[in-house]
Amino acid sequence: MHWTFVAPNIMRISAIGAAAAVGFSTALTSIFSAILVITCLFSWRLIDLLRQSFSNPISKMVLIFFTVLVFGCFVGSVSLEKCLDSLWSWRKVFFIVILIPIFYDELWKKKFLAIFLATSLLGLLISSLSWLGLIEYQIDNAPGVVLQNWATQGMIFAVSILILYYQAEEFQNWSRKVSYGLAFIFLLNIIFITPGRSGYIALGAVLITIGVSKYGLKRLPLIGICLVAFGFTAYLLSPSMQEKVNAGFRVFQEYKVATKPPLNSETFRLMAYENTLELIKERSLIGHGTGSFENVFGNHVKYKYSDWRNRKISDPHNQYLFIVFENGLIGLLIFVCFLLSPFFLKLQKKDSFYYIGIGVLLTWLTTSFFSSHFRTFSEGHLVAFFIGVMFSSQNRLITRR
Question: What is the pTM (predicted TM-score) of this model?
Answer without folding.
Answer: 0.90
